[in-house]
Write the structure tokens for this entry.
Amino acid sequence: MGTNVEWTKDILLIWKIVRKILSGGLSAEERRALAEEFGVSEEVVLRYERARTAYNEQIADKRWRQAKLETILRMTEGGKTLEPERYADELEATLERMRDAEPENELTRELRDASDAIRAELGLPAVPPEDYS
């Protein structure tokens, strides 16, 4: 039985922005429509889009490739057979360890600040820095 997760409005908006980034980015019209749908300014949607794009290009894409390789190597060390049913959980654990070890920098701060700007426009409190990973 799966876990019931309630998504907050900020997470839903961020998820939609990320999906659009991964499929080529947002047009001005799509950005405007998302802003209207969620009741935020186009500026915060654009800010998050830019922050996420920069973060993905400089950090996330490289970390993703590295995590996949590390997970496969760890799961097959000593001649063990890769267990596909465990791969997703192991990959998630590897990504989490990498995120936790990542030092804060300009890109991570701007991504956090862009997320907080969305939350502020939605009337939600900022996420404490220790909760970002």
Summary: Helices lie at 9-22, 28-38, 42-76, 84-101, 106-121.
